[in-house]
Design brief:
- This protein is mainly alpha-helical and 322 residues long.
- It folds into 2 domains: 216 residues, Rossmann fold (3-Layer(aba) Sandwich); 91 residues, Tyrosyl-Transfer RNA Synthetase.
- Helix content is 57%, strand content 7%.
- It is built from 15 helices and 5 strands.
- A 3-stranded parallel β-sheet has the order 1-2-3. The chain has a two-stranded parallel ribbon with strand order 4-5.
- It is elongated, with a radius of gyration of 22 Å.
- Bound molecules: tryptophan and iron/sulfur cluster (SF4).
- The site of iron/sulfur cluster has 14 residues, from helix 12, helix 13 and helix 14.
């Protein structure tokens, strides 16, 4: 099957990305033809005025993917803005997509309801899912791994495809299917959404000391004062991390020990941090061993491969319309 997915280059990857996206990609690349790309045009839709250095961020992102084990020999790791055909197909799709479909998109409604975006209601954000549709269908993707929040975008993609087929009496595109992440979203150490702006994320290039300092501050069961108090792991953020990163036997043991008051939170956190270190340290080391020229080389090769497929598709599309 052909798999296509993109990620916006907005900064360093954290454990939430690893669990929610990268682990999925790692599995998919073993048995499928995968195209993973840096959605740098999409990053502009909200961040056009933040002076981001998108070229550097893109190289950095691909480097992190590879450090995590995404294999450029197996998967095509390209950059969206290098493939102009995405923009061409986006233009065509914009012509046929009713505004009302875009205005009812929950992601859009959500963003424009936030006060800081009221004055920034740009056309590119409204048409974000139209570009996403082009990204996907230009490669005849069968499967698109995404988070729950992106589901409406995939529905819209299928609607746009069907609409195009109806208008032009053709069946040129595949209707893509989403593949939703199985893992629940990992909270930040304070229990809120993991995000750079809350300073509650653990990054994939953290040192063991940085990991410990974050876990040390993580929220535990607030009812538990002394280490002999029975605790409730279900309300503890550290336990969420254990469930995500410790093996099942250890999770079971921690759960019992917490509920019977036979483990202290400090010890529990130390074990949690150690297990996270086991996952992060090879990623951190691999990242440090990769140099930018090497990554640029990988991207250029991948761009070429993606461009060939996309331009062929675009020629067929143009033949139908013009
Ligand atoms: N919108 C996606 C996100 O924010 C990123 C993205 C852009 C994407 N184009 C895509 C994902 C195509 C899957 C397929 O996560
Ligand atoms: Fe959380 Fe562990 Fe403390 Fe229980 S012992 S409250 S699971 S940190």
């Amino acid at each position: 099957m052909r798999v296509v997915s993109g990620m916006r280059p907005t900064g360093k990857l954290h454990l939430g990305h690893y669990l929610g996206v990268i682990k999925n990609w790692l599995e998919l690349q073993e048995k499928n033809e995968c195209f993973f790309f840096v959605a740098d045009w999409h990053a502009l839709s909200t961040k056009y005025d933040e002076g981001l250095s998108l070229k550097d961020l893109s190289v950095e992102l691909v480097k992190e993917w590879i450090a995590c084990g995404i294999n450029p020999e197996k998967s095509t790791l390209f950059v969206q803005s290098a493939i102009k055909e995405h923009a061409e197909l986006y233009l065509i799709f914009n012509m046929i997509t009713p505004l009302s479909w875009l205005e009812r998109n929950p992601t859009y409604k959500d963003l424009v309801s936030q006060p800081e975006y009221k004055k920034k209601n740009n056309a590119g954000f409204l048409t974000y899912p139209v570009l996403q549709t082009a990204d996907i269908v230009i490669y005849d993707a069968d499967i698109v791994p995404i988070g729950e929040d992106q589901k409406p975008h995939l529905e819209l993609a299928r609607e746009i495809v069907r609409h195009f087929h109806f208008i032009y009496k053709t069946e040129i595109f595949k209707e893509p299917k989403e593949l939703l992440t199985k893992t629940p979203r990992l909270p930040g150490i304070d229990g809120r959404k993991m995000s750079k702006s809350y300073n509650n994320a653990i990054y994939l290039d953290s040192s063991d000391e940085e990991i410990w300092q974050k876990i040390r501050l993580a929220k535990t069961d607030p009812q538990r004062i002394r280490k002999t108090d029975p605790g409730n792991p279900e309300v503890c953020i550290v336990f969420e991390y254990h469930k995500a990163f410790s093996d099942v036997n250890e999770v079971e043991e921690i759960k019992n020990a917490c509920m019977t008051g036979s483990i202290g939170c400090v010890e529990c956190k130390k074990r949690c941090a150690a297990n996270i270190s086991k996952i992060i340290s090879p990623i951190r080391e691999k990242k440090a061993s990769l140099n930018n020229d090497e990554i640029l080389d990988i991207i250029n090769k991948a761009n070429k491969k993606a461009r060939e497929i996309a331009s062929k598709k675009m020629q067929e599309v143009n033949k139908i319309i013009f």
